Amino acid sequence: MKQPHICLDETLGVRYAILPGDPARLDRIAQQLEGVRELAYNREFRTFVGELDGVKVALTSTGIGGPSAAIAVEELYQCGADTMLRVGTCASTSKKVSLGDVVIPNGAVKMEGVSAHYLPVEFPAVPDFQVVKAIEQAAQKLELPYNIGVTITKASFYTQTTPETKPVGPELIYKWEAYEKGGATSTSMECSVLFSVGASLGIRTGCVMASATSYKDYSANGRKTDIDIEDRAIRTAIEAMRTLIAEDKENA
Prior knowledge:
The chain is 33% helix and 27% strand. By secondary structure, it is of the alpha/beta class.
């Protein structure tokens, strides 16, 4: 049956999927695959399929935030995918993460509402351990600086960047400070949803990001760098997916 949002069906025949947020980012990721072709583009959901080491891999954009990410994961699962790796950027919330560093979440703060529709609030949002290991191995192989730690998944961009302007500003500021004191090293808008939906479906999920900021330096000047931040995240994701494919072949 054709899925209503990604506009694909079970004939997709793909087990592995890489999930960027930005539809335009697919063009860069597609350069890492062979025989790439575009299959569908509806709303924020754009999908390519190509081959990596002889195995078909889907590339599907999810847009910004948890609700659309959950739709993409659900519908790709219905099309046969059981291993999904998000690739994107994040912001640093710790001195441990600098501009351009690769960030590998091993858990996520559920500062959003979507995950509560899948699992009880006390159930942790964590990625698959095999996927986390594959991403770490990729970062090491590429000799990129990286951090493994807890990320914060927020539901709103501007309630982080300007919380003092919001009616519930004091509550927001308290929470952000508490997360940082707990050791959270980054923030973005999809991880906890990806992990929670994946857990509810019994599939493997993980995330690799590159930090677009240094700690508490979110100004335009602070983001100036010669580092190709997006490329770091993409190359790490591709290398991690190679590892997962190889391990699955070996264990088949």
